[in-house]
Specification:
five-stranded mixed sheet
Length: 375
């Protein structure tokens, strides 16, 4: 047999489609509709012109300057964008570079996190509907899962998650805000969960969409040394094509993830990504303003659909999760695609009548509204 037996247990992640038959408005992959700030292109161009030889050399394996820039951005923003002035001052400590680990997109960072903290001797507890890469990595690393159904109102069933975690002495992972529902737990609710979860097990909060919400759980790191927060540049920082993600955790936990990284890929973040990432952090106010635009359009499309009889879950992300009684999710998806707009449909039982719509620019959302008006 040519293939390893472990390959039989892999069920790869399926990303949003990218068809080439025509030009589409892409609202199916939770990408940012706005480009990175101009300083990003300028910094890369300048770096290449000044240090063209750097492209032939290995980059800083620890991304030290980038980690410093991320830490500074988090300290200045209070952990995430769209915070009030009070929230921006809410960090009870200073995030230091040794609390940051960077990788080639948050998916790679998650892979390192799974390998570092989860074993095969007990199930990893997660919501039934959450980021669909979690089950993929469980299969990849042979980690058993305990998937807890959501409440009827689509919120996380925190009591049941804690019950399963304590019963099995297990770690916990979930996205907050959650995907694909868009619902966020308050920071105090997350803190209460950590207090009641196994103290000797890791508690992972994936904050890929936190910059489109109200608050981050980063302040909780002051008291909870088993907490790991996963972040990405792909969403609010417009880096989906660049690939850059990171975690924020205690220095001890970060060092453990470095051990895993250095045993797999010593140089995951390339020279250009590090250069661009630093420039983006230094000019975060541009991205912060774009996040506000996204939130405004999110609220606008939510109101528009609800006025026309749609069910739309309250979202704290850059997308909405919606359905309309009497119409199949796949039919909505096909009708919108026919009009030249891509949205996301999941055939997963339980959410098959929903569609997930990424928030685009005002012009893109107005075009989408004109199509949805006819459905």
């Amino acid at each position: 047999m040519l293939l390893a037996k472990r390959l039989e247990n892999l069920h790869p992640y399926v990303p949003g489609e990218q068809p080439k038959d025509r030009v589409y408005i892409k609202l199916n992959a939770n990408e940012n509709p706005y480009p990175p700030c101009k300083a990003v292109a300028k910094s890369v161009k300048k770096a290449v012109a000044k240090k063209i030889s750097s492209l032939g050399l290995y980059p800083d394996p620890d991304s030290n300057e980038l980690r410093s820039a991320i830490a500074e951005m988090l300290n200045e923003t209070g952990g995430c964008f769209n915070n009030s002035k009070e929230a921006k001052k809410a960090l009870p400590f200073t995030v230091t570079p040794d609390m940051i680990f960077c990788g080639n997109g948050s998916d790679e960072v998650l892979s390192f996190v799974f390998y570092t903290f989860f074993d095969s001797d007990r199930p990893l507890v997660m919501p039934e509907f959450t980021y669909s890469f979690y089950p993929v990595y469980c299969g990849y690393y042979n980690i058993p899962m305990c998937q807890v159904p959501l409440k009827k109102n689509w919120e996380l069933d925190t009591d049941k998650i804690l019950e399963e975690a304590n019963k099995n002495d297990s770690a916990i992972i979930f996205a907050n805000p959650n995907a694909p529902t868009g619902i966020a737990l308050k920071r105090d609710e997350v803190a209460a969960m950590i207090e009641k979860s196994p103290k000797d097990k890791i508690f992972i909060v994936d904050e890929a969409y936190a910059d489109f919400g109200d608050e981050s759980c980063i302040p909780l790191l002051e008291k909870h040394t088993n907490l790991v927060i996963v972040r990405t540049f792909s969403k609010s920082l417009s880096f989906a094509g660049m690939r850059l993600g990171y975690i924020v955790a205690s220095p001890d936990l970060v060092r453990s993830v470095f051990t895993v990284k250095n045993s797999f890929n010593h140089f995951p973040v390339d020279f250009l990504a590090q250069t661009a990432g630093i420039a983006s952090c230094e000019n975060y106010s541009y991205c912060e303003e774009n996040a506000r635009k996204v939130v405004e359009e999110r609220e606008s499309i939510t109101k528009f659909l609800r006025e026309r009889g749609w069910f739309v879950i309250d979202s704290k992300t850059n997308f909405i999760f919606a359905k309309k009684d009497g119409i199949k999710g796949t039919d909505i998806y096909q009708a919108v695609k026919k009009a030249g707009i891509l949205i996301r449909h999941f055939a997963t039982p339980g959410i098959e009548d929903f569609v997930r719509i990424t928030i685009g620019t005002k012009k893109q959302m107005n075009l989408l509204k004109s199509v949805l008006e006819e459905i």
